Each structure stands twice: as C-alpha cells, then as structure tokens.
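Bench log. Compound arrived from synthesis this morning; before running ITC I wanted a structural hypothesis for how ribulose-5-phosphate sits in the protein. Inputs:
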Amino acid sequence: IRNVRMVTSTAPEAELAPIEQAKKRAAFACGEKYVQSGCRLGVGSGSTVKYLVEYLKQGYQNGQLKDIICVPTSFLTKQWLIESGLPVSDLDAHPELDVCIDGADEVDGQFTCIKGGGGCLAQEKIVQTAAKHFYVIADYLKDSKHLGDRYPAVPIEVLPPASQPLLRSIPRDEGGSCQLRQATKKCGPVVTDNGNFIIDWQFEKNVSGRDWLAIQQRLANTPGIVETGLFIGCVDAVFFAYSDGSVKEIV
Ligand code: 5RP
C-alpha cells in the first residue's frame, strides 16, 4: 500500500505545453522537498531532469541552495550543469551521495521503473546506487499499473562485441524480440557515453506474475550485458505530475 501526498510546486510555467508543465512541476516539487544546502546530489538524465537543473540553477543563483555538489549521470546533463554555473563533480571525488533525482520512462505500482530511453541507464544506475535516497520525477504518461503499459521495451546497455549474440540469446531465453538501437540509417548504432551499444528488448505484454527481479538478475549475469534499464526496489518516492496541474508524491 502506497501513501499519496498532494504536494505544491512553485514552478513558473508560462508558455509551456501541458506535458512540459507536468515535467516541470514534478521536478520543482521534488527539488523543493529533497534538495537542501550542502546536498551531494546525483542528477539524472532526460527532459524532466532538465527542469530540475533549472530549479537548481535558480536556487544556487539566489543563494537558497548553498554548497551543493552535483554529480551528473550523462554527458548531456554534465553540460547542462556546467552551462548553469552549478558545481559539478563525480563519484571519484564524491563516492557517497545524499540524494539522486532522475526521470523514468515508466513506473509501475511497485515502483519498478524502466529507464534508459535516452541511453544513459548504466551511469544512472551507478549514481543512483551511490545515493542514500532515490527520487523519481515523472509526468502522467509514465504512471502505469503494469510494466509495458506505457513504454514498450527494456533498454539494455551491452558491450559492442556481444551485441549480435545477445540480439539472439535474449529473445530466445526471455521471449519477446530485440533491436539494436540505431542512431540514423547512415550512422549505425547509438553509442552510449561509455562507448557501448543499446539493445531494446520488447518483452511480451500481458504476462501475469512476471518476476522482474529474476529477469534483471539473469540479464545482469549474462556476459556482455553491462546494465539494464530495470530499476527495482530502489525508489524512495515518485513525484507524478498530472494534466490537471496536481503533483502527487507517492511513497
Ligand atoms: C535516460 C532516462 C530518462 O530518465 C528517461 O528516458 C526519461 O526521460 P524524459 O524525462 O525525457 O521523459 O532514463 O536514459
């Protein structure tokens, strides 16, 4: 049983499309509640997190957030943080973080998340694991009862030499089908920040009683798989923002 708290957000949102307003509200509401001065913060990746960076920038510039340390989960987030004038660090200097805040592609009723739509899942999971608390910020399109209702696949980061065998073995062992994520027809596969490829595993829908933890463990133990976009049992709270303007913190 989850607790739902209505929360407020001071996000200014003139001229934004409804879905962008929701992303911004979720990001600002989470930042307002869980980022304090002195915080060592893991900063996730994606369009929702971009609003979190906006929130951090405002707080840092107006002096409300002092002495924060930001550890990004991707090259792009690092660029956003640098452009915003925020203090950027890494896990070498700060191996223990207070909080990590990230988006998700889908979150089910048990807080199992699919992440990696942007291809940053391995670093996201490393930074999340280094943090004491993990909060997910998401718009209403990510809220699902059963994984797969909202996002069709589990992204899996793989070492390039293992990609062709894995494209065959994952569907053989787990069902569904797999595709190597392509950048463009001319450029070939997407290459992650770590120099790896992404396989999108389209799992079979409507399979009742699926054990996502067992699937995650099997995949993580497969040679050549670096990490999967399944985040299980690590979320402290989810901030969902809805189209009616409300934000709910679900814990
Ligand atoms: C990137 C991620 C993102 O958190 C996820 O794709 C959500 O992105 P957005 O906020 O743009 O919807 O996991 O790898």
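What the model suggests: The helical segments are 18-34, 47-61, 75-83, 121-130, 163-174, 212-220. The two ends are 9 Å apart (CA to CA).
ITC booked for Thursday regardless.
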